[in-house]
Design goal:
Blueprint (H helix, E strand, L loop, with lengths): L2 E5 L3 H12 L3 E5 L3 H9 L12 E6 L6 H11 L2 E6 L5 H9 L7 E6 L20 E6 L5 H13 L3 E4 L2 H24 L6 H5 L3 H7 L6 H10 L1 H24 L5 H22 L14 E8 L4 H11 L6 E6 L5 E8 L4 H10 L3 E2 L1
Parallel strand pairs: 1-2, 1-3, 3-4, 4-5, 6-7
Antiparallel strand pairs: 5-6, 8-10, 8-11, 9-10
Enzyme class: oxidoreductase
EC number: 1.3.1.12
Pfam family, one: PDH_N
């Protein structure tokens, strides 16, 4: 591919355009909001000038409910040889595409499993899709050339392609993306009218749990509207588990020792199933989950400290697999948690102590 049109210059569309432009493609940008397209162009994502002829690929980066109509308009215009959309829901757009009589031989649905809490072109990054799964949901009559164009798009953006049925995709993202968004928002909503003293106690646990609750509500209403049934089904199962957990917690307050025991079993069952589910989440680079150990280091909040810490770990020959920072309330310091292979713990701990770091 040498040329593309990206229709919709929000986070995903602009990020794809940045990735394609960085690899030498000519990318034309369109958006219902001309200011958004101009902003994306100013970031180096492409040009707002219309193409002079048919392009190789049109990437439709609009909300799910608009995909069918935008595709139909683009095909009537003869805009591209192949078309894909990047909406986060696939079955609804598929049905719209069929109802509008679009040419499905030149169309393949897709969904890059990447995003951020911020939206719009200013939040875009050329490396947003690096190493991420990118789902493709071809129609029964999608041509080989069209599928190959979509696969090339995925490769140019640094992602990993996975082929799925559209309905199966929607059930999967309801479980791993859409339901967590609702649950995180429900947990964060408990904080809206909480007392100031309670909120001041918030630590990394509540921050991790509610991180995605900072996402754009209008955008998520569009996503959830397009996948409402699958999300509602998953939330009903969640609600049943939640009811059981509430009953178990109430039983823990009972005067009867036997009921307290039953309550403890019910609560422990929820926690154990949570352990089992979390253990199934793929680990680093999509590999099976790996157990790491943490070295916790006290660090000052000043420029260069993290770089010095990582450099000392590197000189010790230890690869840092993951890192997290827990900030101290009211102090100019924090705890850095370095996740490393268990066998590397003694080497790393000794090296860091030798360089004057305080370990906890």
């Amino acid at each position: 591919m040498r040329t593309a049109v990206v229709i919709g210059t929000g986070l995903i569309g602009t990020s794809a355009a940045l990735a394609l432009s960085a690899r030498g493609m000519t990318v034309h940008l369109r958006d219902a909001d001309p200011d958004a397209a101009r902003t994306a162009a100013s970031l180096g994502a492409g040009t707002t000038e219309p193409p002079t002829g048919q392009v190789d690929l049109a990437v439709i980066a609009v909300p799910p409910a608009l995909v069918g109509r935008v595709l139909a308009d683009a095909q009537r215009e003869g805009l591209a040889r192949a078309y894909t959309d990047v909406a986060s829901v696939k079955d609804g757009p598929r049905q719209d595409v069929l109802a509008l009589g679009c040419d499905t031989t030149t169309y393949v649905g897709s969904h890059p499993m990447a995003g951020a809490e911020r939206t719009g072109p200013l939040a875009a990054r050329a490396d947003l899709f690096d190493g991420r799964t990118w789902v493709l949901t071809p129609m029964p009559d999608t041509s080989t050339d069209t599928l190959n164009a979509a696969l090339e798009l995925v490769a140019l953006c640094g992602a990993v392609p996975v082929l799925m049925d559209a309905a199966a995709h929607d059930r999967a993202v309801a479980l791993v993306s859409h339901t967590p968004q609702v649950v995180a928002s429900l947990v964060a909503a408990r904080l809206e009218h909480a007392g100031e003293n309670a909120v001041r106690l918030a630590g990394p646990g509540i921050r991790d749990t509610t991180r995605i609750a900072g996402s754009n509500p209008a955008m998520w209403v569009e996503i959830l509207s397009a996948n409402a049934g699958a999300v509602a089904d998953t939330l009903e199962e969640f609600a049943a588990d939640l009811t059981g957990a509430v009953a178990g917690l109430r039983a823990l307050q009972a005067a009867d020792e036997e009921k307290r025991g039953e309550g403890a079993v019910a609560v422990e069952d929820v926690l154990r199933r949570g352990n089992a589910g979390r253990a199934r989440i793929p680990g680093k680079h999509g590999a099976p989950p790996t157990r790491y150990e943490e070295v916790v280091v006290l660090i000052g909040d000043q420029p260069g400290e993290l770089a010095r810490l990582f450099a000392d770990a590197g000189r010790a020959g230890v690869n840092i697999e993951d890192v997290a920072i827990e900030h101290s309330t009211g102090q100019q310091a924090g705890l850095v948690k370095l996740s490393v292979a268990p066998a590397a713990i003694p080497t790393l701990a000794a090296a860091l102590r030798e360089h004057g770091w305080q370990l906890r």
